[in-house]
Amino acid sequence: MPTATVLTLGVVPDLDALAILPGTDDSIPMIARVCSEITRMAPAPPLVIVATGEWAALLPGIALAQRAARRQVRAYVLVDPVLPEVSDQWPDARVHVLGSPGFDLRTAELRGWDTHRDVSAADVINGIRTEE
C-alpha cells in the first residue's frame, strides 16, 4: 500500500506535512481557494487531511472536491475542531479527533469517530500509515 500524503489546514506543531495555503483573495470562497491549492499541489493519493479548529468545518466540501478529482482520502485528522456537519456524503473515510485537555470529545465519540487525548497528530498519522 502506498504511503499516504499528509496535508494540513492550520498549524499542527511537530508534524511533517504539506501545508495548504489557500491565499488571501477574499472575492473567492475559502473552500474554493483550499481546493484550488490542493489541485495546484498535486499530492499523491491516498491523502490524510489534517484540519485544526474552524478549518475542520470545510472538510465535507474538500472531500467532495477530492472525490471529483479522483484522489482517495484515507483518513481525516481533526485537532480541537469545530465539528463538521455529517451527511450521507461525508465522512467518506475514517475520522480521528484529537482533543487537548478540556476539549469535549463526546460528540465525536457519539458519531463513532476515533477520539484521542494526549496523543500527537504525528503519532495518530503514523498509526494510520501502518494500518491496512
Using brief descriptors, characterize the structure shown.
132 residues, alpha/beta, 6-stranded parallel beta sheet, globular
Q: How widely separated are the two ends? A: 8 Å
- How do the strands of the widest beta sheet line up side by side? 2-1-3-4-5-6
Q: Residue-averaged pLDDT, rounded?
A: 90
- The oligomeric status of these chains comes to single chain
Largest sheet: 6 strands, parallel
Class per helix and strand makeup: alpha/beta
Low-confidence stretches: none
Order of helices and strands: EEHEHEEHEH
Beta strands, count: 6
Number of helices: 4
Gyration radius (Cα, Å) is: 14 Å
List the helices and strands and how they pair.
Elements: E1 5-9, E2 18-19, H1 30-41, E3 47-52, H2 59-68, E4 73-79, E5 94-99, H3 106-110, E6 114-117, H4 121-130
Parallel strand pairs: 1-2, 1-3, 3-4, 4-5, 5-6
